[in-house]
Amino acid sequence: MKAFLAYCSKMGNTKKVVESFLKGFGGGIDVLYLDFTPEGILKKYEKEFTLDLSSYDFICFAGWVMGMKVHPFLVGYIRSCEGLEGKDIVVILTGGSTLSREHALAHISEVLEKKKAKTFEFLYVPTLLGLTLTKRKLEKVSEFGRKMREVFKKGS
Amino acid sequence: MDGFWPTFTRRPKIPAKKTYPLGQEIEGYLKSPRRVLIPLRDDTSSQFNLTISEGKKVGPGERIGEKVRGDGKIALRATIGGEFKGIVKAPVPDGFYSECALIERMEDWDVKDQDLREYGLSGEELLREAGIPFKYDKLRKARVLVLNATQFEPHFGLQNLLLSSNLDELLDGMNLVKEIFGIEHSVICLERKNKDLSEKLKPKLKHSGTIVFETKRAYPRKGKRLLLKEVSGKGTLNEDDYVVFSDPWIFVCTSRAVRRGEPYLERPVEVDGSAFPTPKILMVRIGTPFQEIFEFLGTKMDVLTEIVVGGVLQGIPQPTLEVPVSYDTGLILAFMSLNLKESTESKIYRESTCVRCAKCVDVCPSNIVPNVIVESLRRKLFERALYAGIERCVECGLCSYVCPSRIPLLTILKIAKRDMGLVSGD
User: Fold this and answer.
1) Looking at beta carbons, which residues of chain A come within 8 Å of B345?
2) What are the start-end ranges of the H helices in B194-285?
3) What backbone torsions phi and psi does residue B117 show, to the nearest 5 degrees?
4) What CA–CA distance (Å, rounded) separates B373 from B382?
5) How far is B10 from chain A (nearest CA, A)?
6) Which of A90, A95, B160, B324 could potentially form a cystine with B37 if both were Cys, beta carbons 3.0 to 4.6 Å apart?
């Protein structure tokens, strides 16, 4: 049973959320940081870089929301991935305001449906560019990570 | 809102440099590509003569013609053994379309590389027959031979590798050039920060007649004037006394041509970028199309998005994978990117107006004002651009790199200088 998490972070807020999630998850997960230039070009080849996710049982994507839509970097990566058919995906998104939550969920669900995958669990963390990313929120993310660990162990 | 924090406070001044460990070797050898496209022109105005006809079988190193330049002729040689299929027009790394000699390898045609010692040539004639693209007219006038081995491009580690692993041949080549052309002195310029390499070189160069000069900063390929100002310590000097080279491999080829009779058929090429799991240095035959190099290295071709020859600062993007390796191709960068077409595009990443932040002025090594020059050029005020110092531009690319408005400063300056007939450095 293999677990995978891909994320991109511009200001470091999504990275903090992902680190809290990984702390709760407890390890044993392949993590890929998608580091792009503004034109969408991958800056550096990371050892874990893959577009073929067919061998993974637990897949999680994390990114940020811009203009009430999931940022193109994460969407572009998901579009290029193979092996997502029939998979249940966990999505973690950060954004400036709580108002974007439903729009972002609709957008990411649409993107995943086109790849024949579905959004299994969704967590939205409003950060307001870091100003409202409190310790309590990060603890909730860790709790979410622990919950996902249980799901992963059960294999469902 | 793509990032509340202004992009100009976050963008680094210059990209961080990559260092290679000393002692790294060339990691692969693409000796027998399926075909080669040998560029027949150095630039759009140079001429060539071919002495073979279509269908002829040629051996590696066999003379197929000559390039005709202002300072004389340089031999063109087949870099693999095979059949000459004719002349085709192909894009070359320097950014223009050139005629190229297409030679396809024949499986049952196994011939050894030609030995130039059979012709009994020596001196400048031997170097011209070997196809070594020196600037012969400048070498004849020069008194000091300078090798610019400061690593200006951040991804370019090949120079350091050649200095550490091919030092004997490099020094031999420099000494041979000094002997042939009557040059009195030779200098290798290294950046002061590159202490490991300069400490390794200094004991070896002690009795070789070549000096190691530690520069305060790295200089771009066309920054001859700036480099010489630091090396000579003089504000004004006679530039004809100095000849500057940026490619150490040319001296290794000189040594091999004179000592072993080997013509200039192959060169080391560094490949880097996110399309490759690890950066590598390969020995390839001149004229090998990039596609063959990528196939040799196992690159995932469907996500390949951009190929740049020369580095992130001064590099030239290439239009296709059919571009061949030329005589001075040292670095190939290839990047992969993902499908962003149907997504939201941020307007911040498009070209916008100059905000007078002066970051280009801060970073310019020639102390000119790139944004003012580019604005003058766009308004066709060419005299104003000349007055503002466009001739002093060394085409380093730093202004384009730091510009928060994403104005293509380097591209505009390069095109304008070419159209105005201005030449900077060597």
Assistant:
1) 72
2) 195-205, 224-232, 249-260
3) -65, -20
4) 9
5) 10
6) B324
* CA–CA separation, B311 and B413 (whole Å): 18
User: Smallest Cβ distance to A75: which of B275, B343, B348?
Assistant: B343
Residue in B137, B224, B154, B158 with CA at minimum distance from that of residue B187: B224
DSSP B369: -
Q: Which two tokens stand for residue A122?
A: 């969704």
Q: Do A10 and B343 touch (CB under 8 A)?
A: no
Q: Which residues are paired to B82 by β-bridges? A: B58, B105
The identity of residue B84, as a single letter, is: F
Query: Which phi and psi angles does B331 have, rounded to 5°?
Result: -140, 130
DSSP B118: G
pLDDT of residue B287: 95
Q: Which residue has the higher pLDDT, B323 or B349?
A: B323
* Contact assignment for A80 to B348 by CB distance below 8 Å: no
* Closest-CA residue to B124 (of B257, B282, B29): B257
Strands A58-66 and B280-285: unpaired
Name chain B contacts of A75, Cβ cutoff 8 Å.
340, 343
For the stretch A18-66, pLDDT in tens is 999 999 999 889 999 998 877 778 888 887 888 899 999 999 999 999 8
Among A residues 65-124, those touching chain B with beta carbons less than 8 Å apart:
66-67, 69, 71-73, 75-77, 79-80, 96
**Spatial contact of B260 and B248, defined as CB atoms under 8 Å apart:** no
Contacts 24+ apart (CB under 8 A), B191-200: B191/B150, B191/B151, B191/B215, B191/B216, B191/B217, B191/B218, B192/B216, B194/B150, B194/B151, B194/B160, B196/B22, B197/B22, B197/B160, B197/B163, B197/B164, B200/B22, B200/B164
For B329-353, the pLDDT digits (tens) are: 999 999 887 766 655 555 556 788 9
CB contact under 8 A, B303 and A69: no
Q: Output the CA torsion sign for B115, B121, B123, B128.
A: negative
Contact B339 A76 (CB under 8 A): yes
Say whether residue A154 is in contact with chain B using an 8 A CB cutoff: no
Mutate to test the interface with B, among A80, A107, A132 (most CBs of B within 10 A): A80
Phi then psi dihedrals of residue A80, to 5 deg:
-85, -10
How many angstroms separate the CA of residue B324 from the nearest CA in chain A? 24
Hey, of A13, A75, A94, A107, which one would you mutate to test binding to chain B, going by the most B CBs within 10 A of its CB? A75
Query: Smallest CA–CA separation between B208 and chain A, in Å?
Result: 41
Summarised one tens digit per residue, pLDDT across range B31-78 is 889 999 999 988 888 889 999 999 999 988 999 999 998 888 999 999
Closest among A81, A60, A80 to A3, alpha carbons compared: A60
Q: How far is B326 from chain A (nearest CA, A)?
A: 26
Residues of A in contact with B1 (CB under 8 A): 66-67, 96
